[in-house]
């Protein structure tokens, strides 16, 4: 059955791989599943056809036969559950890898995403510096905890898992800020993620979409 | 095997059921699993023994034999996967229920939690009114989308699931604000959640902890 995902016709991140379709592309590349992409504009994301697939008008979505899914975390989990390579076989190790998926999305991503939004939407507000400082304090605490837990390991809990895949895509949003500078082990962790052939294929695919849109 | 979770010795929400152990208690009550609770102070949450269980120094944690888990979403999923009653048996319906779990935690919870934090931490800042307004705009959009999708249904996708359980615990944080007033179907949805016997038992259990701490 053909897998079809949705992605931005013209991603606001200019092809830097920060849009949430990147996670799904990477997961599909890790397990070797081909997929098709339907590009959507912001206007189209609020039309009934897209809202039927994604109640909050976001990307990505995932269609495969009768199944329609939304939420990048749920889509990555669905892929990981049905194919070898993204979740350990041992039941306890699998449960811990899933805990890292939720930690990435619910504990690490919110302040990092808030910071990204603030740098766009609040840059000219009188409180911008103070708000940025407060967000960066929160992010710094999370990174310190994450760095201590990762230690000298390659991945968060044993072999590379869907938890690492989500965590890497989230931490990549901090590249170019100074926030990761104090944590060489997190920088090396990100580099290990980016070096995976499946990551590179997924990154190239989403970049090609942006490049084509810009040339068009 | 005995299940042990952690919870605040003295919850900052004063027993209103908003701390994240409530989700885990409710899930365990839904599936009829007994559990023990180890209470922790904020100081204890930063000690090595707790950080070994929860890298970010939060509650709840979940211990069962050799397995130690963190992240409320992952713990609820673990319970739902191992017991009937919180996830549909049909594979596609199960995947959609999991999508609602991720949507609750990653799309609905962040702005609602940010608003709760802002009302505590930013109340005296010069930007408070504007920041609150901006957060409430975001929350309002999410609620409008959620209300439209729920429609006249009792639950988000067929029978009550772990997705509803998480969504209800998150929306309950808005009770007492005016944000839900425009959405009678969401208010009725919350009331259906609170009326479940398992919810009531879980709520009473967490309230008893707070009451004991206050009397002590």
UniProtKB/TrEMBL annotation, chains A, B:
Enzyme Commission (EC) number: 2.5.1.18
Ranges of residues in domain GST N-terminal: 8-87
SUPFAM superfamilies in alphabetical order: GST C-terminal domain-like, Thioredoxin-like
Keywords: Transferase
A GO term, aspect molecular function: glutathione transferase activity
InterPro entries found in the cross-reference section: Glutathione-S-Trfase_C-like, Glutathione-S-Trfase_C_sf, Glutathione_S-Trfase, Glutathione_S-Trfase_N, Thioredoxin-like_sf
Ranges where the GST C-terminal domain occurs: 90-211
Cross-referenced Pfam families: GST_N
Source organism, top-level taxon: Bacteria
Name of the molecule in the record: Glutathione S-transferase
Organism: Rhizobium esperanzae
């Amino acid at each position: 059955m053909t897998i079809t995902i949705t992605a931005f016709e013209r991603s606001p991140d200019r092809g830097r791989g920060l849009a949430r379709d990147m996670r799904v592309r990477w997961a599909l590349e890790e397990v070797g599943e081909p997929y098709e992409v339907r590009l959507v504009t912001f206007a189209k994301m609020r039309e009934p056809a897209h809202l039927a697939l994604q109640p909050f008008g976001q990307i990505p979505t995932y269609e495969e036969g009768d199944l329609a899914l939304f939420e990048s975390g749920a889509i990555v989990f669905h892929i990981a559950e049905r194919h070898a390579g993204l979740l350990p076989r041992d039941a306890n190790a699998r449960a811990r890898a899933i805990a890292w998926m939720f930690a990435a999305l619910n504990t690490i991503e919110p302040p990092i995403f808030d910071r990204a939004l603030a740098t766009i939407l609040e840059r000219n507000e009188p409180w911008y510096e103070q708000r940025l400082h407060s967000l960066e304090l929160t992010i710094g605490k999370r990174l310190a905890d994450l760095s201590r837990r990762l230690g000298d390991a390659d991945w968060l809990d044993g072999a590379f898992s869907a938890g690492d895949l989500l965590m890497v895509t989230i931490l990549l949003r901090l590249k170019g800020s100074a926030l990761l500078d104090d944590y060489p082990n997190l920088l090396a962790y990100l580099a290990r993620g980016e070096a995976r052939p499946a990551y590179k294929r997924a990154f190239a695919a989403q970049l090609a979409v942006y490049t084509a849109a810009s040339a068009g």
